Amino acid sequence: MGDNASMIWNFTKMHGLGNDFVMLDGVRQSIDMTPDRARALAHRQFGIGCDQILLVDTPLHPEADFRYRIFNADGGEVEHCGNGARCFVKFVHEQKLSSRNPLRAEIATGLITLEALPNGDVVVDMGQTRFAPEDLPFDVTGLATRTEGTDTLYGLPLQVNGTEQLVWLSAVAISNPHAVQVVTDVDRAPVAQVGPLIESHPRFARRVNAGFLQIVDRHTAYLRVYERGAGETLACGTGACAAVAAGIRRGLLDSPVRLRARGGWLTIEWDGSALRMTGPTTTVFSSSIDIDRLVASIPAGI
Ligand SMILES: N[C@@H](CCC[C@H](N)C(=O)O)C(=O)O
After folding, report:
1. 133-273 is classed in which CATH architecture?
2. 233: Cβ below 6 Å to ligand 1?
3. ipTM here
4. 8-127+281-297 matches 133-273 in fold
């Protein structure tokens, strides 16, 4: 158990398809998370290194087994995390916080159900999917629109290398905001160049996760995501759900969809309301860290 005075935090490093996490048990140790602390833990050179931090805690909701909070590598707290949700289940079971299966977890936007399968994969009922621009929020005033299937696409003008390009985006909220574009070849998609322009575009008041989706056939797709607050990751679970929902609405995909992220494969099922994500999780190691010493060790401006 962590000692409050010395600020030693026990943690476990995990990943879901290479989207990596520092997992913290806030049930048996007292964790006061701040943006500075989250950034220090996530720092690839000075800290442990991760895309996100998950803080597991006792629930406030009477029907939940646990509550967990999610922090991006930039220190910002966010609504949802698909790969983190799967890691949460394995973490709770391995740390013997609970042997319950399925589990009910409280996240910032409500309750979700998660289940460990006999093969070790975890299936997550991802909760509400929304498509109205105000759900992200996405200010679409004056933007060109186009209808494809049952989806509305918004033409976002971007300056790329001094040239204006119109990028057609599906708007999807899986609690957290996603802007998905279809590309012909995900390996050649300009994720590093265009991703940050979309992620921080002023029309997305809370910024956005930018997805690049390649359709392979009606049940197979490839995806890369430039994540809000973390940059391109090897996989993004909510991004996968958003991309599949957008692909189905656009008439390009049918459920179930096998989706390949750079770090591996997920299965996404969507019947127009319930959205389920199934995939693996991995525990890397557990250790402990003096959080205040870590924060103090990072030079200003880095
Ligand atoms: N990697 C996650 C998503 C984490 C949050 C995201 N970067 C955001 O800011 O909304 C996933 O697997 O879903």
Report:
1. Roll (3.10)
2. yes
3. 0.99
4. yes
Class of the CATH domain delimited by 8-127+281-297: alpha beta
Ligand 1 pocket member 20 (CB < 6 A): no
Known catalytic residue at 87: no
Query: How far apart are the CA of 208 and the centre of ligand 1, in A?
Result: 10
Q: Whose CA is nearest to atom 2 of ligand 1?
A: 81
The pLDDT tens digits along the chain (302 residues) read: 444 456 999 999 999 999 999 999 999 999 999 999 999 999 999 999 999 999 999 999 999 999 999 999 999 999 999 999 999 999 999 999 999 999 999 999 899 999 999 999 999 999 989 999 999 999 999 999 999 999 999 999 999 989 999 999 999 999 999 999 999 999 999 999 999 999 999 999 999 999 999 999 999 999 999 999 999 999 999 999 999 999 999 999 999 999 999 999 999 999 999 999 999 999 999 999 999 999 999 999 88
Contacts of 296 (CB under 8 A, 6+ apart): none
Q: How far is the CA of 236 from the centre of ligand 1 (A)?
A: 6
- Tell me the β-bridge partners of 180: 170, 211
Choice among 50, 87, 236, 241 that is catalytic: 236
100 Cα: distance to centroid of ligand 1 (angstroms): 25
CB 181 near ligand 1, within 6 Å = no
C-beta separation of 80 from 107 below 8 A: yes
Amino acid of residue 271: D
Domain range summary for the chain, segments of one domain joined by +: 8-127+281-297, 133-273
What does the alpha-carbon distance between residue 252 and residue 271 come to, in Å, rounded to a whole number? 15
Angle (nearest 5°) at CA 147 between 216 and 151: 60
0.95 exceeded by the pTM?
Answer: yes
Task: Read off the DSSP letter of residue 51.
Answer: S
Q: Which of 228, 262, 275 to mutate to test the pocket of ligand 1 (most atoms within 8 A of CB)?
A: 228
Residue 117 token pair: 């399968």
